[in-house]
Amino acid sequence: MSTDTSTDAPADEAEEAAPRDELREGILARLTDALGDAVVGHHIRPGDDLWVRVTREAWQETGRIARDRLGCRYFNFLSAIDWLPSPYGRSLDAAVDKLVGADTSPAEGEGDEAGGDVTVEAGTGGIVTGYAGGDTRFQLFARVTNVKEHWGVTFKCDLPDDDLRADTWIPNYHGANWHERETWEMFGITFEGHPYLRHLYLPGAFEGHPLRKDFPLLARLVKPWPGIVDVEDMPPLPEEEGEGSADEGDDNGGGS
Prior knowledge:
Helices cover 23% and strands 19% of the residues. The protein has 256 residues and is an alpha/beta fold. The chain has a domain at 2-85 and 120-201: NADH:ubiquinone oxidoreductase Nqo5 subunit (Beta Polymerase, domain 2). The strands form two sheets. Strands 1-2-3-6-5-4 form a six-stranded mixed beta sheet. A two-stranded parallel ribbon has the order 7-8. The longest helix has 14 residues, at 22-35.
């Protein structure tokens, strides 16, 4: 099981120094007890939040356990993420990028004019999958909340590149219906058991999945996207009050 804890101190000293979160440690223990080896990663940010990564086979069961055993009756969202760095690089930089001097140029071999495929393997430095880790380019995310006890948990699930499928969460949370439709439409992830996977935003004949990193957003090349703005200089400050008043009086014939 992967965790996001590391230190150079000896193990016993690190355990004493690390802040504890008994609430979320207890939640994690209950999930692990129910799911066993299906819990493959986790991360606790003490006093704040919890992330748990499970196997794809346990994805639907995880939602049921969260609802029935943990009391998470509120469904926040379900979506996905493509961790692949854009093979096209970044054609334009926002003002903040220039301000901090960020290097946004594509890496060597990325994004040739033909838009060739770029293969980046997890764990090689090209893909970083965030809290609770990950072994694949695509991951599912879902968040639920226990509104009575005022805490939530974010679940993650790895999906193999050549088999983007997972069981639907609709039996657990009916609100997942449209979230899964959007995720299917934008990422190309199929939800087994979903009763009506149809487009929400795109025309029915649309080809491709716009939220994949290798989908070319040509509109950004034709016209600067809204995040790119021209920053104008601030107008000059007015002269201090009283400055040049004597000259003004002479020009107006005053002073008599």
